[in-house]
Specification:
The complex is a heterodimer of chains A (about 375) and B (about 170). With about 375 residues, chain A is α/β, with parallel strands linked by helices. Chain A contains 13 helices and 15 strands. The two termini of chain B are about 25 Å apart. The chains are: A alpha/beta (about 375), B alpha/beta (about 170).
Chain lengths: ~375, ~170
């Protein structure tokens, strides 16, 4: 297939479809609407369902229902809509319902700047619901990667029976560039019971990978779904032991696969004294800043977080041992920088921006120069 | 070699669509292209801007730094977006909608919207007339390529009129 011009949001829709998503429930919001628009065109052609709901809360509810009934599901929104979805994101984590939630970030808080780019929802993606929960958050930097990460997000949601946040931004969501999409795609199938009811099947009995093989509704099993802490039967339990074990298992099922899930893109790190850490659309600008700084003789490397959460503690810890300083460039007031500080064994400096405009390479370069001067 | 364009006007004039078509044409000629946009929360009116970068090399930072070409379809856009033009670049203005020329050496004035209204009966075609002008002035893509890209993008029953619009723009400079 030859290259074609495609938008980031369109690529997310394409990737979701290729990964087997057959149900979308959503409510339009800039800058995410093209995902809904694309899926509204594509889903009916493959026997899928597109529903525009009355609001974002219902959009989240309807995809969880569809997921329990056996469909691979996705919803897309931006900050204000994601805030509304938070309650049911927690429900998905507690009831272990596979679902992908796309957040195409714009400037907040509240309605903020509806059409302007931001990366201000990083911590919302990690903690945006109450209670101890685990979650996977992925962020693409290109249109092609938006496609690939949409596939990955659906696969992880299915494999770990967890909500997965595809955290993109207006930069990548609205960007159009030439892409050649991969045709060979690995798709993780919906997990199915390995036992019959007669053999003693319990829907929330964890498999070897700690993930339960919950049967889909309507396929002959009795399933009880609740946001209350439940035992292997799926019914609520008031036991401290069950509570402890369930919360721990929900964390362990993801953390035990950390090495597989956590992806970090590194370049120019072999000789690096410094590194710029970034993610999403900002990483494109950071890359140019790193190239420019290297041309001026500064030994600076490029580190891009593809997986935002679980956080790349070990990788950052390891690479930072050989570094004199790290610059974190993010299009917000400072969020991921605290995670980096926690993990790094070297000084960490923030390069923040929150004025509706994206970074210019010179701005990041200037911060690199400041970091170099500060640690001398 | 890298070429940078900025198409600007107000929401509803179709500058974003024109930029997408131009980027599509460049990609179909085997080049790398990146198209981005910025606009206000309004569906119509308000400032609207779209940028296209065309390069043989990979494009990372997606925004135009020093545009080689700027199209301005409103006075406001002309006043705002000519500042960082490459000194050897070209500023293309809609003659009727931009009465006052900014202080810039190389300006091309074309009555883009007027041509669309007079020859095709609708201001709606102004962005495609503008594309014709842009392709002639910039020589970034072949005229045949842009014809195909326009035909692929517009509703089928409007292809003929859009081809005329493109030709009118192309012949106007």
């Amino acid at each position: 297939m030859s290259a074609r011009l495609m938008q980031g949001n369109e690529a997310i829709a394409e990737g979701a479809l290729k990964a087997g998503v057959r149900f979308f429930g959503g409510y339009p919001i800039t800058p995410s609407t093209e995902i809904a628009e694309s899926l509204a065109k594509m889903l009916p052609k493959v026997g899928g369902t597109f529903v525009q709901m009355e609001d974002e809360i219902a959009s989240m509810g309807v995809i969880l229902g569809a997921s329990l009934a056996g469909k691979k599901v996705l919803t897309a929104s931006s900050g204000p809509g994601i805030s509304l979805k938070q309650e049911l994101i927690g429900y998905a984590a507690a009831a272990e319902i596979p679902a992908v939630i796309v957040n195409v970030q714009r400037v907040g808080p509240s309605t903020g700047q509806p059409t302007a780019p931001s990366q201000g929802d990083v911590m919302q993606a990690r903690w945006g619901t109450h209670g101890d929960h685990s979650i996977i958050v992925l962020s693409p930097w290109s249109v092609k990667e938006a496609f690939e990460i949409a596939v990955k997000a659906v696969n992880y949601a299915e494999r770990f029976r967890t909500p997965v946040i595809l955290l993109t931004d207006e930069i990548v969501g609205h960007l159009r560039e030439n892409v050649e999409l991969p045709t060979d795609i690995e798709v993780y199938p919906r997990r199915i019971p390995k036992k019959t009811r007669a053999e003693g099947y319990q829907p929330f009995t964890p498999d070897e990978d700690l993930v339960p093989n919950v049967a889909n509704f309507g396929e002959g099993y009795k399933i009880h779904v609740t946001g209350l802490i439940h035992d292997e039967t799926g019914f609520p339990s008031g036991s401290p032991k069950v509570t402890r074990e369930q919360i721990k298992r929900m964390h362990d099922k993801i953390s035990s696969a950390d090495d597989e899930i956590i992806e970090v893109h590194q370049e120019f790190m072999d000789d690096a004294d410094f590194a710029v850490i970034s993610f999403g659309g900002t990483a494109r600008t950071a890359y140019e800043a790193v190239l420019n700084a290297r041309k001026r003789g500064i030994k600076v490397g490029f580190v891009r977080l593809i997986t935002i959460f679980p956080f790349a503690d070990k990788i950052i810890g390891k690479i930072s041992k050989n570094l004199r300083g790290i610059l974190v460039a993010e299009l917000n007031f400072g969020q991921i920088v605290y995670e980096v500080e926690r993990a790094a064994n070297c000084p960490v400096k923030l390069c923040a921006k929150y004025d509706m405009t994206i970074f210019e390479p010179e701005e990041i370069e200037k911060s690199i120069d400041e970091l170099v001067a500060e640690v001398k | 070699m890298r070429k940078q364009l900025r198409l600007s006007g107000s929401g509803g004039q179709g500058v974003i669509t024109a930029a997408i078509i131009l980027a599509e044409a460049a990609v179909s000629e085997g080049k790398n292209a990146v198209q981005s946009q910025s606009y206000g929360p309004e569906a119509r009116g308000g400032a609207s801007k779209s940028e296209v970068i065309i390069d043989d090399e990979k494009i990372y930072h997606p925004h135009v730094k020093t545009p080689d070409f700027v199209l301005a379809m409103t006075q406001k856009a002309a006043d705002k977006y000519f500042h960082d033009l490459n000194p050897n670049g070209t500023l293309i203005l809609d003659d009727d909608l931009v009465p006052n020329s900014p202080d810039f050496k190389n300006i091309i004035r074309v009555p883009i919207t007027k041509l669309a209204v007079e020859r095709l009966g609708k201001a709606l075609f102004a962005n495609i007339v503008a594309l014709g002008v842009i392709v002639k002035v910039t020589r970034l893509v072949d005229f045949e390529t842009i014809k195909k890209s326009v035909a692929n993008r517009v509703p089928p029953h409007t292809i003929e009129q859009n081809m005329t619009a493109l030709q009118i723009g192309y012949d106007s400079v």
